[in-house]
Write a sequence for this structure.
């Protein structure tokens, strides 16, 4: 299956109740050829309206961290979410919604074959890295699984609420930059 075929199929998805209330399905943004994949939680209001991940206030903050290490959401990374449709009133996606949506993300990862996955926040990190993952304790550490390095860091919305965590988040991005320089071939070329 090609990326375009996967996206077309995904856009028809009505596997869970979030399909009924979405304005737009948010498949992701960036280059499917990228070596680094960022995974957030799920679309909020702005993302639902525009069909693109992280376009609200937390997205603007994310873009600043990306720019600090020469990453650009349209050029050398890909950004997706654990769930592709907005949970009403921005509640956490339910475990069963995440379960049903995970197939799409898994298919994206199979096609992309990223070298590094960065989980933005607890919801993604606990699904992708480990059930007991604690962002405050384990942020910025790389864990290898099936040939892919996985790292969890603070969700940008959490940084807006707790700006005192911003220096730690910057360190995580700098560690990411060093890891990209070490193992990636095309990201900075
Ligand atoms: N928060 C997320 O986790 N993802 C988005 O796309 C927007 C906000």
């Amino acid at each position: 299956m090609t990326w375009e075929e996967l996206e077309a199929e995904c856009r028809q998805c009505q596997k869970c109740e979030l399909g009924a209330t979405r304005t737009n399905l948010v498949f992701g943004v960036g280059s499917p050829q990228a070596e680094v994949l960022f995974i957030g939680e799920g679309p909020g209001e702005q993302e639902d309206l525009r069909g693109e991940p992280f376009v609200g206030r937390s997205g603007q903050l994310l873009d600043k961290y990306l720019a600090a290490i020469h990453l650009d959401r349209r050029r050398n990374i890909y950004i997706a979410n654990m769930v592709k449709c907005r949970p009403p009133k921005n509640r956490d996606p339910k475990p069963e919604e995440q379960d049903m949506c995970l197939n799409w993300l898994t298919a994206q990862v199979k096609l992309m074959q990223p070298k590094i996955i960065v989980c933005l926040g607890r919801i993604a990190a606990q699904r992708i890295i480990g059930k007991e993952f604690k962002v405050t304790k384990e942020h910025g550490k790389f864990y290898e699984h099936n040939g892919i390095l996985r790292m969890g860091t603070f969700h940008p919305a959490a940084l807006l609420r707790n700006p005192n965590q911003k220096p730690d988040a910057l360190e995580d991005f700098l560690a990411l930059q060093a890891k990209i320089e070490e193992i990636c071939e095309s990201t900075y070329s």
The longest helix spans residues 95-112. The longest strand covers residues 148-153.
